[in-house]
Amino acid sequence: MNKIKVNTIITLVIAIFCFTHKLEAQNNVDTNRTLSRTEQSIVSIAALTARGDLPKLKTGLNTGLKAGLTVNEIKEVLVHLYAYCGFPRSIRGLQTFVEVLDERKAKGVSDKTENDASPINNKGSKYERGKKILGTLTQTPQPDAPTGYSAFAPVIDTFLKEHLFADIFERDVLTYRERELVTVSVLSTIGGVEPMLHSHLNICLNVGLTPKQLLQFVDIIKSTVGKKEATAARIVLDEVLKTRSNLN
């Protein structure tokens, strides 16, 4: 009986050790993992569209398709970014994408389209849905009464909650993680919006992006857009990481 108990304990210890080792290994992999090829392309496409550099965008779109992005994923990237840099940039990006697809089709290239965005069947208050999504992304309870600029111009708070975080972020095709990569890419490119970039870099960490991946994101901004924009983004990222480190 004692021998059986000893064997059972040994087996449990070995199992716990193996599980712990596997978990630690997984954590190390997640920590050291770089952005995937499709994620890198999302950053480049979003930044080049926001900059309005259409010749380079053509190259970026081709690279994104070769990396494995579907037609509908790229379309969703170009639609999403209009909320941060405007309809003109978004529409020019979509027009450029149509040109790229036509050129590829003429060469006999058939690109994957995949499914369109699913209909949003949630019948609840759009404002409350957007407020809930924003709370999920920021991991912070949203105030019942608007403050600051939202109190000064309440309609912008309505647009923010109902349109940006309900109409746009509630769509599928792209994950929250991918949408945040689009967002910080645009904000880094247009510049002068450091408070918003600070908030969205925090959200990037909340949705699973790692510090190493965000440093890689800054490197892509440098090679795609320029050193000035990358330096400004790096300053904000360093502030975010320092604050998070002090809280832990």
Concise overview:
By secondary structure, this protein is mostly helical.
SSE map:
Elements: H1 2-32, H2 37-51, H3 54-67, H4 71-80, H5 82-85, H6 87-106, H7 126-138, H8 149-152, H9 154-168, H10 176-190, H11 194-206, H12 211-224, H13 227-247
Enter the CATH topology name of the largest domain.
AhpD-like
Distance between the termini: 47 Å
The CATH homologous superfamily of the largest domain is named AhpD-like
Rg calc:
22 Å
InterPro entries: 4CMD/NDH-1_regulator, AhpD-like, CMD-like
Protein name: Carboxymuconolactone decarboxylase family protein
Domain Carboxymuconolactone decarboxylase-like: 31-94, 159-239
Description:
The protein has 248 residues and is mainly alpha-helical. The chain has two domains: 37-111 and 172-247, AhpD-like, CATH 1.20.1290.10; 124-171, no CATH class. Helix content is 76%, strand content 0%.
Features:
248 residues; mainly alpha; AhpD-like; 2 domains; 13 helices; globular
